[in-house]
Write a structure and sequence with these properties.
This protein is α/β, with parallel strands linked by helices. Helix content is 36%, strand content 18%. The strands form three sheets. Strands 2-3-1-4-5 form a five-stranded mixed β-sheet, sandwiched between helices. The two termini are 30 Å apart. The relative contact order is 0.12.
Length: 375
């Protein structure tokens, strides 16, 4: 049940004319990328999905040469290096006798950011496709394509879990949002019983049960309303909190969320959205969360939004003096991609939080929403 962007990403890096585009065509068995003897043919990252046996669907990213020249060339190199922040594995192509500063820069970045790297010698001999794919499978972290269970450490076979899923203008027409689907699938894999209801149906749903459920999971935006209906002895959390645990950095989120209490008038907060979506008047990140933070803190806070794959540099955290960074649930990206997006903030000493955790804090139920996962 992966969205397109949650597939593992494999980036192909190297100098101009080293064979990056040829390799992506070779691996996919299709004429995906333009191949030319003219150096600098690829100017922007090109993405293509393919299937790798034993792993499943992945996204290959073809990038511009890391040795490009001139002002436009420098911008292309910057885009290629920025693409490193969104990959789970970097394939670094080079030719015999040509491994220098450009390649070392990629290798250094991967080493510093914990991104696996696989070096591929090209043009000196034909590449064995089967051996290369096997090497990719061995180098790609298993966590990139086989994420751990969302609730497997706290929910057991036969447990009853109530999922409270409001339907409003931000809900996709005729569908459920991805985090809800992911939690449902996880509960099915665990052979637990999942009950769905909307907030206004929750009290009757609980009354209709022979015993209290082992867990209630709700959408962040109705936390306060749901909390009032759920008995204190029943664990309560949100879809965002559940995803935050799976994506890693949960201890950092817990510590960073508590820093909301220290925000002052004029402080800048950066909201990170991992996908692009249609913005509505009920949008959580752009409307509800800023309003909730201003109300809960009583401070005039300033907010910036960074959506999609846009990358912010460490220096910008310093120059713009952000006091807090809040990441969305990250349902459409891998754990490595979440880590890469937040690493500049962590390196700059800026606290990080998560949409669900921040909203729980604003609604005064942060301790309750996280207690279940800290026992």
């Amino acid at each position: 049940m992966k969205g397109n962007e949650s597939k593992p990403r494999i980036g192909i890096f190297g100098r101009r004319n080293v064979g990056k585009s040829s390799l992506i065509n070779f691996l996919t068995g299709q004429q995906i990328a333009i191949v030319s003897d003219t150096a600098g043919t690829t100017t922007d990252p090109v993405r293509k999905s393919m299937e790798i046996g034993g792993i499943g669907p992945v996204v290959l990213i073809d990038t511009a040469g890391i040795d490009d020249e001139g002002e436009l060339g420098r911008q292309r190199v910057e885009k290629s290096m920025a693409a490193l922040a969104e990959v789970d594995l970097a394939l670094l192509l080079y030719t015999e006798g040509n491994y220098g500063e450009s390649e070392e820069n990629v290798e250094r970045w991967c080493r510093e950011h914990g991104t696996p790297i696989l070096k591929v010698l090209t043009k000196s001999a034909p590449i064995d496709k089967d051996k290369l794919i096997e090497s990719i499978k061995n180098a790609l972290p298993e966590s990139a394509y086989r994420g751990r269970s969302l609730l497997g450490d706290v929910v057991h076979q036969g447990d009853t879990v109530v999922l409270v899923t409001p339907i409003d203008s931000s809900a996709p027409e005729g569908r459920m949002i991805l985090p809800q689907v992911q939690v449902l699938r996880d509960l099915m894999d665990l052979h637990a019983r999942a009950l769905f209801c909307q907030p206004e149906e929750l009290r009757d749903t609980l009354l209709g049960l022979k015993a209290l459920p082992q867990l209630v999971v709700t959408d962040s935006q109705v936390f306060e309303r749901v909390a009032a209906a759920v008995p204190e002895e029943v664990p309560l959390t949100s879809f965002s909190v559940v995803l935050a645990r799976q994506k890693g950095l949960f201890p950092e989120y817990l510590a960073g969320t508590k820093k909301i209490a220290t925000l002052q008038d004029g402080d800048r907060v950066l909201l990170l959205e991992s996908c692009t979506h249609n913005v509505t008047c009920e949008d959580i990140g752009r409307v509800k969360l800023p309003a909730a933070l201003r109300k809960a803190t009583g401070k005039q806070l300033e907010f910036d939004i960074l959506a999609g794959s846009d990358k912010i540099l460490n220096t910008q955290f310093i120059d713009l003096n952000y006091k807090l960074v809040i990441q969305c649930g990250g349902c459409v990206i891998t754990a490595q991609q979440v880590y890469a997006r937040l690493l500049p903030a962590l390196e700059a000493g800026v606290p990080v939080s998560n949409y669900g955790l921040a909203l729980a804090w604003c609604n005064g139920i942060f301790e309750r929403a996280t207690k279940f996962f800290q026992q």
